[in-house]
């Protein structure tokens, strides 16, 4: 990637450091939130939301996904769809099953 | 050209630890054919027991322990290992490892796979996995005995399973490395001019297959790790609370679920059946186009159908679990997706049939196998529909009907297509053609005896005979009327084995004495036929490849010959 | 004949081979951990109510928080090492890569104390389903850490110097690819942390 001159990289580095700060803050936030007195459902929702935000920051900025090429984005979208199938279909099947008994 | 193609390679570098995709493809091919043969032998011993229960097994009886009668424990071992070996060590490595490796780079005009060292690693991982599986027969615990599906709780308590799981981890790793390589190769190394819709159907089939492997295998790897934990670290991921085994409550924490294994297992294993069939369809497509001297009918619909097939194959898996107490809603969902997924298969089969219409067909050996594939796969596919509908599956589940169904898909289906591929590409690999006479002597008996083995399974299954029965159903009242078929099927299986002798002779004789041929003996259009036979080591083609046209331009009006190669302007 | 697009990008995809390769590999890794996360959810639903939370409360949140910060820092240092190579500063690369390895090592040390702490209290994978999945998930994650350390260590040692001198662009690509893998390992931990320690 010869289009990255030094100045360009310097800008990137600033972004990385900002993201670093955000990730640290979110980590502390999620720990703090876990001590809050909320219902389990709310706690799960909160923790997973924060984790997803953190993961998106890592994927988007550290792994450069926000500027990545189409081929890769397509492959990841496909993977993500199958990931959802793998996560949720067994779960829904169990719930469906449980409701019968 | 770089200078590394000039240095001399010694024997080890050239034939054993080579990174040339052609050598690795051949290594895969030879190893997997040996495994197919071995898996078939296991089955013949079982078929002997089914036809002549508890009598001495001829020829190999001395291997079976003190008495030369096949004992139930060994029967279960042979059954589980037959399934495992046929699928993971036979068909997949042959279809993807051998054909994918050898043919795909040639068909896209590439000098090699994208990652040659990874390619070698994939083969060696497969090899180690195979050795572990074989070695398990000789270990004090013996080989796995819980079926190729390894359902818990049985698989947690039965001996031999640990070795099986370790072997599987190697085989999964091998498939992952191999298929990643295929994806990158197809995306990145296509020759100039070879756009996506100029790819031969075979390459498309391999592409979709590779995605299935990359995305479906890892959950099974996860499940294998969990099962290993259950066996080795005494966790209870797959064991419910209060489970009683051999009269005693099992001493584990409990609260796990055997159904979890079934989900993760079938999340792989359903896509896996498309891994078994898609490359076969790819081969059949190429062979049919070549021998009908016509473009494949509906090339684009074939491509779209196989992509759709690949996608759908990820959301049908629980049709293997209708009898696990699944609720109405999910059961309806999986029945629907299963009916939907049959559509692209029908599209593909129909396109192949229409391609035959009005063609002046050359009945060469590869074409005979490809033609036989069509009705055989058709039978396999159609008999699958009743299994995909919950109501009829209640009756058919776990009977010989299921065994008949999927064997029609993989044995006279996939295996025939793979034979077609071997006969078709043999001249490219060796520079010599295989004997047509021996080829026909191989084909016709194989076709007859294949049906002799598998057709009666439908009859037995409909009568309710369960699969995995040591005595083939002797003790069951409902099986009495169909028991006589056991001997018929077994004799067919032994004759089927005999029918492979002409093939084995053919390979060896033709390798050294076959008719010498030029680079394009079949008058084919795809890119691999413009390389020398055999292709140049580490380079494949003599010069740069450029592609000017679609994959199946046969009998183009106005052209001077009845085929227009992709590499000719 | 040379395999094309090892270093330069293929015009129509804009990618070189290893970049695509690592992403396909990560796709399979997503499915691997997807299978395990799916198992976690499934088992949590199958377990008696409160069972997972009860056993989860035996884990040390401070240690895990510390480890989270360590891993995030290592993600930053690994990307800084790549950026340094982009700026042709090999010395800085060495420093940042060294820091990354140090962080990875620190993570393992903390994990070691966590594990042995559990063993001292007689807690093993077989103690409960939660502990089983805890040890399996973190164990596999640790294997990924060790794998990453081996690869990055290889590029940090003198082999790296040689490759940087002979083919700097290719070397930079390798570090980028290794970095992508490392970020993924971090990303997995980001999910493991809440589901194992906090919920
Ligand atoms: C062409 C020769 C073959 C014959 C005669 C044959 C025969 C059989 C028979 C009779 C069974 C049922 C055993 C029982 O239920 O006790 C069986 C099971 C099975 N076969 Fe084959 N088969 C052949 C080829 C193949 C191929 C090519 C594959 C896969 C690609 C395959 C995969 C399986 C699997 C997965 C099972 C189930 C094993 C289990 O119960 O766990 N077979 N075979
Ligand atoms: Cu299925």
Descriptive account of the structure:
The complex is a heterotrimer of chains A (101), B (569) and C (199). Chain A has 101 residues and is mostly helical. Chain A has helices at residues 6-34, 40-62, 70-100. Chain B contains 16 helices and two strands. Chain B has helices spanning 11-16, 21-51, 72-107, 116-135, 154-157, 161-188, 201-232, 258-292, 299-312, 328-356, 365-388, 390-396, 400-430, 436-462, 485-499, 501-513, and strands at 244-245, 248-249. Chain B is globular. Residues 1-5 of chain B have low confidence and may be disordered. Chain C is elongated and about 60 Å long. The chains are: A mainly alpha (101), B mainly alpha (569), C mainly alpha (199). At the B-C interface, helix 6, helix 7 and helix 8 of B face helix 1 and helix 5 of C. Residues 270, 273, 316, 319-320 of chain B line the site of copper (II) ion.
Search tags:
heterotrimer, A: 101 residues, mainly alpha, 2 domains, flat, B: 569 residues, Cytochrome C Oxidase, Chain A, two-stranded antiparallel ribbon, globular, disordered N terminus, binds protoporphyrin IX containing FE, binds copper (II) ion
- What's the level 1 CATH class of chain C? Mainly Alpha
What's the architecture of chain C, going by CATH?
Answer: Up-down Bundle
Question: In the residues of chain C, how many domains can be counted?
Answer: 1
Total of domains of chain A? 2
Separate helix tally of chain A: 3
Q: Helix share of residues of chain A? A: over 70%
Bound molecules: protoporphyrin IX containing FE, copper (II) ion
- Going by helix content, strand content and strand pairing, the class of chain C is mainly alpha
Would you identify the CATH H-level superfamily of chain C? Cytochrome c oxidase, subunit III, four-helix bundle
Number of strands of chain C: 0
Q: Count the strands of chain A?
A: 0
What is the topology?
The complex is a heterotrimer of chains A (101), B (569) and C (199).
Chain A: H1 6-34, H2 40-62, H3 70-100
Helix pairs in contact in A: 1-2
Chain B: H1 11-16, H2 21-51, H3 72-107, H4 116-135, H5 154-157, H6 161-188, H7 201-232, E1 244-245, E2 248-249, H8 258-292, H9 299-312, H10 328-356, H11 365-388, H12 390-396, H13 400-430, H14 436-462, H15 485-499, H16 501-513
Helix pairs in contact in B: 2-3, 2-4, 2-15, 3-4, 3-6, 3-7, 3-8, 3-13, 4-6, 6-7, 7-8, 7-9, 8-10, 8-11, 8-13, 9-10, 10-11, 11-13, 11-14, 13-14, 14-15, 14-16
Chain C: H1 17-46, H2 51-56, H3 61-86, H4 90-120, H5 129-156, H6 158-166, H7 168-198
Helix pairs in contact in C: 1-5, 1-7, 3-4, 3-7, 4-5, 5-7, 6-7
The structure holds protoporphyrin IX containing FE and copper (II) ion.
């Amino acid at each position: 990637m010869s289009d990255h001159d030094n100045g360009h990289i310097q800008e990137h580095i600033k972004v990385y450091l900002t993201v670093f700060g955000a990730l640290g803050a979110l980590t502390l936030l999620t720990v703090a939130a876990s001590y809050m007195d909320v219902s389990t459902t709310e706690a799960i929702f909160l923790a997973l939301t924060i984790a997803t935000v953190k993961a998106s920051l890592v994927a988007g900025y550290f792994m450069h996904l926000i500027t990545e090429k189409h081929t890769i984005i397509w492959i990841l979208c496909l993977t993500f769809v199958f990931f959802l199938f793998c996560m949720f279909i067994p779960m829904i099947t169990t719930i469906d099953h449980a409701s019968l008994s | 050209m770089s200078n590394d193609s000039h240095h001399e390679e010694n024997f080890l570098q050239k034939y054993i630890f080579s990174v040339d995709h052609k050598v690795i493809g051949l290594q895969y091919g030879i190893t997997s054919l040996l495994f197919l043969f071995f898996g078939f032998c296991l089955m013949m011993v079982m078929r002997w027991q089914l036809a002549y229960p508890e009598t001495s097994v001829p020829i190999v009886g001395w291997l079976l322990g003190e008495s030369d009668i096949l004992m139930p424990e060994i029967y279960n071992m042979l059954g589980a290992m037959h399934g495992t070996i046929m699928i993971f060590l036979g068909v997949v490595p042959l279809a993807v490892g051998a054909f994918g490796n050898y043919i795909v780079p040639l068909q896209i005009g590439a000098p090699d796979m994208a990652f040659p060292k990874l390619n070698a690693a994939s083969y060696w991982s497969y090899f180690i996995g195979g050795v572990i599986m074989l070695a398990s027969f000789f270990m004090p615990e013996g080989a796995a005995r819980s079926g190729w599906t390894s359902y818990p709780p049985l698989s947690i308590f039965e001996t031999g399973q640990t070795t099986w799981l370790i072997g599987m981890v190697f085989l999964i790793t091998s498939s992952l490395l191999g298929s990643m390589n295929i994806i990158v190769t197809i995306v990145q190394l296509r020759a100039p001019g070879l756009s996506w819709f100029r790819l031969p159907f075979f390459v498309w089939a391999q592409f979709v297959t590779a995605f299935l492997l990359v995305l479906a295998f890892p959950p099974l790897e996860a499940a294998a790790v969990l099962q290993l934990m259950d066996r080795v670290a005494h966790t209870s991921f797959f064991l419910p609370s209060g489970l009683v085994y051999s009269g005693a409550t099992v001493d584990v924490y409990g609260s796990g679920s055997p159904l979890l294994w079934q989900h993760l297992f079938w999340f792989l294993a359903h896509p896996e059946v498309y891994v078994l069939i898609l490359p076969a369809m790819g081969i059949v497509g190429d062979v049919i186009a070549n021998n009908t001297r016509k473009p494949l009918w509906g090339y684009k619909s074939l491509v779209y159908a196989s992509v759709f097939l690949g996608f759908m194959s990820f959301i049908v898996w629980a049709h293997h679990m209708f009898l696990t107490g699944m609720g109405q809603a999910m059961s309806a969902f999986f029945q629907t997706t299963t009916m939907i997924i049959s559509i692209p298969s029908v599209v593909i089969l129909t396109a192949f049939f229409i391609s035959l219409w009005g063609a002046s067909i050359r009945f060469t050996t590869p074409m005979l196998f490809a033609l036989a594939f069509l009705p055989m796969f058709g039978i396999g596919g159609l008999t699958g529909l009743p299994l995909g509908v919950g109501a009829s599956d209640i009756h058919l589940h776990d009977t010989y009907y299921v065994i008949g169904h999927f064997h029609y898909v993989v044995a006279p289906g996939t295996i025939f297509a793979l034979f077609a591929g071997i006969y078709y590409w043999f001249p490219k690999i060796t520079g010599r053609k295989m004997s047509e006479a021996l080829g026909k002597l191989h084909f016709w008996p194989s076709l007859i005896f294949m049906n002799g083995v598998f057709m009666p399974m439908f009859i037995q299954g409909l009568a309710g005979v369960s699969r995995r029965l040591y005595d083939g159903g002797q003790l069951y009242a409902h099986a009495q009327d169909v028991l006589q078929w056991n001997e018929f099927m077994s004799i067919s299986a032994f004759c089927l084995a005999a029918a492979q002798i002409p093939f084995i002779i053919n390979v060896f004789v033709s390798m050294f004495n076959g008719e010498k041929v030029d680079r394009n003996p079949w008058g084919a259009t795809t890119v691999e036929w413009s390389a020398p036979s055999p292709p140049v080591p580490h380079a494949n083609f003599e010069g740069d490849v450029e592609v000017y046209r679609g994959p199946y331009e046969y009998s183009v009006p106005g052209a001077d010959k009845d085929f227009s190669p992709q590499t000719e302007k | 004949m040379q395999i094309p697009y090892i270093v330069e990008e293929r015009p129509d995809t804009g990618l070189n081979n290893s970049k695509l390769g690592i992403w396909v590999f990560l796709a399979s890794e997503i499915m691997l951990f997807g299978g395990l996360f799916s198992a976690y959810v499934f088992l949590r639903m199958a377990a008696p109510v409160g069972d997972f939370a009860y056993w989860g409360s035996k884990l040390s949140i401070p240690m895990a928080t510390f480890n989270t910060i360590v891993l995030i820092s290592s993600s930053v240092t690994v990307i800084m090492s790549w950026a340094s190579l982009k700026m042709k500063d090999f010395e800085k690369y060495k420093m940042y890569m060294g820091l990354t390895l140090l962080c990875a090592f620190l993570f393992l040390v903390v994990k070691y104390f966590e594990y042995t702490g559990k063993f001292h209290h007689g807690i093993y994978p077989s103690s409960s389903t939660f502990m089983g999945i805890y040890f399996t998930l973190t164990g596999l994650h640790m294997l990924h850490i060790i794998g990453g350390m081996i690869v990055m260590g290889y590029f940090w040692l003198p082999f790296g110097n040689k490759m940087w001198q002979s083919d700097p662009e290719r070397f930079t690509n390798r570090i980028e690819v290794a970095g992508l893998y490392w970020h993924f390992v971090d990303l997995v931990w980001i999910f493991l942390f809440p589901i194992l320690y906090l919920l």
